[in-house]
Write a structure and sequence with these properties.
single chain; mainly beta; 7-stranded mixed sheet; 5-stranded antiparallel sheet; 2 helices; 14 strands; 51% strand; globular; disordered N terminus
C-alpha cells in the first residue's frame, strides 16, 4: 500500500513553471559559440545562430564556450546535400573533416571541454544563394546554425 501511494504521489506532481528549452519533446541546452572572421547572430530555434558568408568565399572559425561546450559537428547540409560525421574516425584521430566543391570544414578538439571548427568556404560562382546548415550535438547539448552565401554571378 505504501509503494502505491508513493507512485501516485510522484506521478501526480508537475512543475508549473517549466521553462526549459525543448527540441521536440526533449529538453536541451544550447551550445554557446564564439566566432572569429564571421558575424554570427544568436536567435531562437530552429537555428541558434545565423550568418552570411561573402560571395567570394571566406575562412573563419568558431569555438564552443561555456558550461555546455562539449559537442561537435555531426551534420553539415549544403544546398540540401547532407555530409555526416564519422564518429569512430573522430575519436581515433581527434579531427573531423567535411568537404565538397564548396570548400571544407575541419573540426578539432582544442581542449578537453571545447571544440573548434575552421571553415574554408570557396567562392560561390553561381547566381544562386548557397545555404549551409550545421548541426552540433552531444546528448542534450544542441546547436544549429544557418549560413547563407550569395552567388558572385549576376542574375
Amino acid at each position: 500500500m505504501t509503494t502505491l501511494l508513493c507512485i501516485v504521489t510522484l506521478a501526480g506532481c508537475k512543475k508549473d513553471d517549466d521553462s526549459s528549452d525543448k527540441l521536440g519533446d526533449v529538453p536541451y541546452s544550447v551550445i554557446e559559440l564564439e566566432a572569429e572572421g564571421i558575424s554570427l547572430f544568436k536567435q531562437e530555434l530552429p537555428y541558434s545562430y545565423i550568418g552570411t558568408i561573402p560571395a567570394q568565399g571566406a575562412t573563419f572559425t568558431f569555438t564552443t564556450v561555456g558550461i555546455n561546450s562539449w559537442a561537435w559537428i555531426n551534420r553539415v547540409d549544403v544546398d540540401g546535400i547532407g555530409y555526416w560525421d564519422d564518429y569512430d574516425w573522430y575519436v581515433e584521430s581527434g579531427e573531423m573533416v567535411f568537404s565538397g566543391e564548396w570548400g571544407d570544414i575541419k573540426g578539432i578538439c582544442v581542449r578537453p571541454e571545447s571544440y573548434q571548427a575552421t571553415f574554408n568556404i570557396k567562392e560561390n560562382p553561381s547566381s544562386d544563394v548557397r545555404e549551409f546548415e550545421i548541426i552540433l550535438q552531444s546528448g542534450n547539448l544542441y546547436n544549429s546554425m544557418k549560413l547563407t552565401q550569395e552567388g558572385s554571378e549576376q542574375k
